[in-house]
Amino acid sequence: MRAIRNLFFGFLLVALVADLAMTTWFRVEEHEEALVLTMGRANRQVEKGFHGKLPWPLESVVIRPVRITQQLTFGYTEKDGKTVLVPDEALMITGDENIVWADLLVEWQISDIKKYEFAAEDPQRLLRHAVSSALRSVMGTTSLDFAITTGKFELQSEVKKNLISLMDTYDVGISVEDVKLQDVEPPDEVEAEFKAVTDAREARLTKINEAGKYEAERIPQARAEAQQLLEQAEANKQARINQAQGDIAKYKALLEAYKASPTITEQRLILETLERILPGAEIIIMDSSDGDTVKYLPLRKEAAQ
């Protein structure tokens, strides 16, 4: 019996020594931070490396990944590589009293390990409730049409702003890094109708863009054509002025010649007119002084009459 008792105490001593060896030191990785608790109260915070402490139950240690960005999904879960919607989270009412599916991804970090451990019983659950509040408050003031079409990034920014404000108020040692709105869709029952509305809106925008493109092309072209017409009109104007000035100079010269020699000028004009109205015709000039000649074209007398 004494041998058995000695063996038992020997095993107990070995177990105690092993426990002391295992619980008096700990290791903190690069991305972690540790909080040492003395009799359940926060005593000190330590970073990477090997550290010693008093054996349990005098001291214990809590190690958290404070330098890793963690993710919280709201409105859906990942199961076997597939996305599964969570209706209780994803379904909500918009400002115009319609129902919409909305889900998002929140990226967050532990900013203060002491507050994370002691400020709330379940910080991650509190974060989920804050996400629900921030998202529903934004959707509750937004129309369904805006939410499912052009408002995604604006809504995402507003949700992030509200969520950061809430977490700062709760002060539980969680820092919100980013909010990514995944999907905002109408319920399945009216999805076809909203798709038709979306298609019509996209067609309208396409037509507007095409009209804008045509306008952008035609206006410079029309201005160039107008400038060309103005320049051509100016050139025609100058040509007509030059032609008129040339005709004036010609008539003035003709008038001076007529004043100097009326008879010769008249005869020259008659001959030039005949050449113009009878091109190629043979013209015979006869002496009118002969009294026996019959005058078939007495121009001077007709002109005098």
How does this model look, in words?
- The protein has 305 residues and is α+β, with helices and mostly antiparallel strands.
- Among the domains are: 2-64, no CATH class; 70-186, 2-Layer Sandwich (Tetrahydropterin Synthase, Chain A), CATH 3.30.479.
- It is built from nine helices and eleven strands.
- The strands form four sheets. Strands 6, 9, 10 and 11 form a four-stranded antiparallel β-sheet that branches.
- Strand 2 and strand 3 form a beta hairpin.
- The protein is rod-shaped.
- The termini are far apart.
What's a concise summary of this model?
The protein is an alpha+beta fold. Among the domains are: about 1-65, no CATH class; about 70-185, Band 7 domain (Tetrahydropterin Synthase, Chain A), CATH 3.30.479.30. It is about 55% helix and about 20% strand.
